[in-house]
Amino acid sequence: MTSSQFPFPTLPRDFVLGAATSAAQIEGHAPGDGKGPSIWDAFCATPGKIKDGSDISVACDHIHRMPQDVERMQWLGLDAYRFSFAWPRVQPLGQGAWNETGLAFYDRLIDTLLAAGIAPHATLHHWDLPQALQDLVGGWQSRETSRYFADYAAEIARRFGDRLVTISTLNEPWCVATLGYEMGQFAPGLKSRKAAMQVSHHLLLGHGLAMSAMRAIGPRSQLGIVLNHTPAVAAEKTPSDLHAARIADGLDVRWYMDPLFRGAYPADAIEHLGDDAPRIESGDMAVIRQPLDFLGINLYTRNWVSTREPKIPAPAPHGFNDMGWEIVPEVLTQHLVRLTRDYMPPPMIITENGMANADVVDADGAVEDTPRVAYLQGHLDAVAKALAMGVDVRGYFYWSLLDNFEWDSGYAKRFGLFRVDYDTQARTPKASAHWYREFIANHKRSR
Ligand code: GBH
């Protein structure tokens, strides 16, 4: 994979280049180590929920292969690695006793990263809620969970706040609420918009309570949140498409950004929701709106909104990924500019960006994934363009380091820089890994 075909974008000297994973998607189980079940274990055990019928009991077996996986990060030359703590590994019931064996794993992971010169960036909740909280109080449908989450956050800040560079409270609350409680596509699999919107509020409340609890500990880590944004674009400039795109934006981008930065849910979205709007107690919005040290943005694609029948298809000059998501690198530039203009956010980090690809393994075992190289190059270039326009973005984490458990798609969709053979657990760097490695080496030379 040559740099002449995919030229290296120029980024600032101190720009952080990394890769990301999450606990439920890579760790797997180590029987007898005290980890409690999460709602994703239960969801995987429900027939028909995971497309290939798989589960997360082994995944990438990272729990047993962590040191070698850190060596792979070192081979890539990563500045930083973003991982998540599995709440039920740390605190099996989501309240009460801490699991020292689970905490010791993350302690080793962080020290191994630091010894390798890789900055650890952690997320507290990447969707694997302790099943006990789901059973006991209905998970995020209850405000109790927001309070338990803050206790857990404080414990992590207390134990690891001297070594973690950043701590993000939540990963993608939109996915948790909407995909988990409205669409039934993710755990716990409910199908109620009313429940989903209440959940979104409790997630934000949990974020706010966790921020306060962690600030009280005074960790050295920067504290923030990670949001996923799928910018909505009207297919035609008709009142109907423009209105639909506006509502989609209100329920995705503004639903989370407005409470965090303006202290209120967007009025048009509240009106659109009617009876499904969440119940808010006095003081909640002040808890949610507190200064963030950084804002993590996950961006994969845009939302092409067409209300005409049949729908106007997305133009997709760069095609679609293996999930069927349109590839539109320029949306990343446009969206970073828009967030800066509308919210004056703290420094931003691209905490996820990547693509699933039906990778081709050659006869000699090499993994050919040119579309991923193009995606990576295109989006790093989009970040460089946003920087040139004055946006404050400090880092980029490719999703994902490894092929892994892609939630309801099981193991069928591959986002990794490394291919994982799930029979042998062998990892093979793809062409994109070689390109990213050369790009990072080139970038470091220019420092
Ligand atoms: C992330 O979610 C997750 O954080 C990560 O765990 C996951 O593995 C990764 O992405 C890949 O899925 O409008 O139909 O074109 C991203 C979730 C992806 C949700 C894009 C909205 C829009 C699809 N978002 N999606 S569409």
Automatic annotation (TrEMBL):
Alphabetical list of PROSITE patterns matching this protein: GLYCOSYL_HYDROL_F1_1
GO BP terms: cellulose catabolic process
Entry's Gene Ontology molecular function annotations: beta-glucosidase activity
Reaction equations catalysed: Hydrolysis of terminal, non-reducing beta-D-glucosyl residues with release of beta-D-glucose
Catalytic machinery residues: 172, 352
One family name in Pfam for this protein: Glyco_hydro_1
The keyword Oxidoreductase appears for this protein: no
Xref: InterPro entries: GH, Glyco_hydro_1, Glyco_hydro_1_AS, Glyco_hydro_1_beta-glucosidase
Binding site for substrate: 25, 126, 171, 300, 399, 406-407
Protein name, per record: Beta-glucosidase
Organism the protein comes from: Scleromatobacter humisilvae
